[in-house]
């Protein structure tokens, strides 16, 4: 998990950082008023930040990195149903990625919005093709499903 984390965490951080740079380079390509973009960004950041808080508070970073898939001690833990996870069993994928849309809206960047949409779609493909079947093996019928 340590080696995985040394690769995973920097890549996770680079996703929004690189999107900020891209959004800044392509700013004002989305036709909307600045105030609307800022307000939308703030509204999107609320569930995203709450999800990050809930993930750290109720999951911990190791379990959030996929500890359930690699370590027995996490597999024996019940699924989290607190914080953002009481609204969606898969809050990290559903609400966490709102931060990418918020970045695009903050800079009013159409290309960044398309990148955010692609990345959000891509993570759901990963979930349905990789994580969901694995979670079914680990947790049985009570797998995290999007609500």
What are the key terms here?
single chain, 147 residues, mainly alpha, 7 helices
Note the gap between the termini.
29 Å
Q: What is the percentage of strand-forming residues? A: under 5%
User: Roughly how many Å is the radius of gyration?
Assistant: 16 Å
- pLDDT average, as an integer? 89
Tally of DSSP β-strands: 0
What's a concise summary of this model?
By secondary structure, the chain is mostly helical.
Structural write-up:
There is one protein chain. With 147 residues, this protein is an all-alpha fold. It has one domain (2-139). The protein contains seven helices and no strands. The chain has helices spanning 2-25, 34-59, 61-70, 72-75, 91-94, 98-106, 110-139. Helix 2 packs antiparallel against helix 6. The model has no long low-confidence stretch (mean pLDDT 89).
Topology:
Elements: H1 2-25, H2 34-59, H3 61-70, H4 72-75, H5 91-94, H6 98-106, H7 110-139
Helix pairs in contact: 1-6, 1-7, 2-6, 6-7
